[in-house]
Amino acid sequence: MSNLPTDPAERSPAIDRVPELARWYGDGLDASSPTAEQWRRILDGPEDAPVTLINFFKLRAEADYSSDPPAPEQPGSGLDALLRYAAVSAPTLEAVGGSFLLNAGYAGTLIGDDEDWDLVAVGTYPNRRALLALFENDAYRAAFRHRVAAVDKQKVLVAAG
After folding, report:
1. Residue 124's beta-bridge partner residues?
2. Mean pLDDT of 93-115
3. pLDDT band for position 157 (50/70/90)?
4. Which DSSP symbol is given to 14?
5. Sequence-ordered list of residues with C-beta below 8 angstroms from that of 20, at least 6 positions apart, any chain
6. Domains recognised in the chain with CATH numbers
């Protein structure tokens, strides 16, 4: 059940971008991108509050471009594909006003259930408009295919405020 405002006057104007974001990035049912409901939740918060994304990645042994042909002749490893994505995503994140707080190997769980990840990346944005600008950037959208090819599973947590 959603806690999103039903009165259009209370909604963020960014909510109107959800259908296009879902068209560009997919429906998210394969966990390679946000679902429409997840897009709505993240875009409907206070527009001027900072937003931080905590990304957990489990990489494929070999990059998988089968859902987005034509594939490179030598797709390489999941890490190779993630580095192709990062070569575009990192400077684009900075161009929209964001910054990385951390990019590191996953070292384990201190409290809670053990999980199996390869990498953790923490990016912060000054506000939701900056985050939306990242996802609407043409170069970022084109590079996102490398993230999909690289990642076997992922979890992205959102911290706001």
Report:
1. 52, 99
2. 97
3. very high
4. G
5. none
6. 48-160 (3.30.70.100)
Q: Which H/E stretch holds residue 100?
A: strand 99-105
User: What is the per-residue pLDDT across 34-82, written as a single tens digit (0 to 9) for each?
Assistant: 999 998 988 888 888 999 999 999 999 999 998 876 666 668 999 999 9
Sign of the C-alpha dihedral computed for residues 122, 134, 139 and 62 taken in this order: positive
Q: How far apart are CA 19 and CA 50, in angstroms?
A: 24
> Do the Cβ atoms of 32 and 143 come closer than 8 Å?
no
Question: For the chain, what percent of residues have pLDDT higher than 90?
Answer: 65
Q: How far is CA 100 from the centre of its chain?
A: 13
51-59, strands of its sheet edge to edge:
99-105, 119-125, 51-59, 151-160
- 154 C-beta neighbours (distance < 10 Å), count: 18
Tokens (6 digits) for 142: 């084109």
Tokens at 109, concatenated? 């769980």
pTM of this prediction exceeds 0.70: yes
Find out whether 43 and 125 touch, Cβ atoms under 8 Å: no
